[in-house]
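FORM 7B: Structural annotation worksheet

SECTION A. Query
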Amino acid sequence: MKERKAHYALQLLDAYELNAFRKFLQSPYFNQKESIVLYFNILAEALKSEGGIADLDEQKVWNEIFGTPYDDLKFRKFNSDFFALIEKFLVQKEFEGDAQLVNYYKINGFRNRNADKLYSSLLTDIEVTRRTDPNRNAQYFLNQYNIEKAIFSLIPEDERKKDFRSNEYGLDIDKISINLDVYFISEKLKYYSNILSWNQLYHTDLNIKGIDLVMRLANNPIFKEVPVIAIFTKIIQLKTEPENEENFFELKGLVDEHLHLFPPFEGKEIIDAMLNYCINKVNKGTFSFERQVFEIYQRGLESEAILVNNVLETSDYRNIAMIGLRLGEINWVDKFIHEYAQKLDPKYQDNAFYFSLARLETYKANYEKVIENINKIIFDDVWYNLNARTLLMTAYFELGEIQVLESLLQSFRAYVSREKSLPKTRKTNYLNLISFTRQLLNIEGASPEKIEELKRKITSTQGVVNKPWLLEKINSYLQKRRK
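SECTION B. Predicted structure
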């Protein structure tokens, strides 16, 4: 069967959502066509099979549902109607998942029907929802603004004229203004933070009109202690004052205290901003920030803020393992690699898992296991081609497998030279590694002067992949020669 929008959308639903959608379609309020329910059941059953929906025959499906000759035009319209119901289901699901939004529409529904006898219990429900909402991000304050404004509209005009602060309704006109201000300031700060990142990444000079005024408001005593404002103000300062490390540690303190107030997708934005700052510091030679990178990753894992829809990105998985190994956290990394492999996208899980294990075994000096794990990797992209071959080079060298290493160096050079997606600078960095590794192979028996000369050459050359390992091998040779 030809894939249609409805089929693609249906495959996005997990088992729980498919069951909920079945109930949705069975409700006469949302759907009154039995044919739609039959179609869903056929598609849902097909999703369980190996071939999936693609293996279905459109004409047979049509006949099973309608018992009439196949009509392509009507079938396309039928699929369009089915897709519209999927959309409606997703909207309903999102709506019901936002208790604050539901309360807002409850107020409007009661007000439009003059249900004043229900106001008291409604306001009690709203207060309970407000207290139990775990989030305090910008959207929370927008929701509170809308709710407070709606509550204000419940009060008859005559009563408003008498007293704008009604004890009966708990109305405080200042709440409306403050919630709107916090939403406005925090959203402006977030977008300005994004623009600063884009300017750095794409070498642009974008700006937001009035941002100076917003920054002054953000530092006003009325707003500066609000977590969402305080955190994004500090993120902006990280980007505009990168040399002031105090901003980072103040942000870290705020995040430790308030990260739980943000939904996962915003928590990840905050974690990423801190990581980018620390990684830039490390790249510029402030290696003490490697420990900060590791601690931020740990915080992100503990809070699950680093996960996207409960999935850990492959690059984060590999980077966490790498930074932990650099810091000597061998046992922690071993546990992490095995525990969090289940959080990876299944399409990329095996490669990331076996590569990270190979890197771990390199640090343990179990070079046979390095080779064993590398052999389980499918070399389907440039990243694995480069990094896995680099680990293999180390393993063959340490095991004294000179003939195999020579062959690898030759094929590695050919791959780097012909790979069109690699920038010239990156090619040079890997070619330098290959060249220096070849020279290491010929250093046995060389004089200390010759070894020192190679060491100076490696040290002074800008852009050498795996330079610490090369220098470690050089120093090892020097020690042997001096004994």
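SECTION C. Observations
Residues 380-483 form one domain. The mean pLDDT is 93.

SECTION D. Sign-off
Analyst initials: ____
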